[in-house]
Amino acid sequence: MRKFVLATVIALSYLSGSAEAGFYDGNEVYARCTSAEANRETWCLGYVAGVADTYQTHLKVLSNGRRCFPKGSTLGQLKDVFIRYLLDHPEDRHWDADGLAMLSFRDAFCPDKK
User: What is the pLDDT of residues 77-90, one digit of tens each?
Assistant: First the structure.
C-alpha cells in the first residue's frame, strides 16, 4: 500500500504545475539538509516551507478545507519529520523530494490519510 501511495503522490507532483517537476530528489535534499555548509539550514527550511504550503493547499482543495498540521507545529518540526523520513527510508531517496516530504507529513500528522 505504501508503494501505491508513494507512486500516487509522485504522479500528482508531476501534474501540479507547468514547470518541470522533480527539481530535487531525496538524495539531493538529504545531502543539502545534513551538510556542514553555512547556509544549509536556511535552504532546507525554505524547501520544506514550500512543500508544506503546497501540501496544505492540496489537502484544502481535496478534503474540503481539512488541515493536517497540528496547531502550533513549527517549520523546524516539519523539517525534522522530513529529514527523519529520509533517514529511515534510504530505499526511497531516489524519488522526487517533494513527494517524499508530503509522504513524511502525511505519515506523521495525517495517519488517517494513508
Answer: 999 999 999 999 99
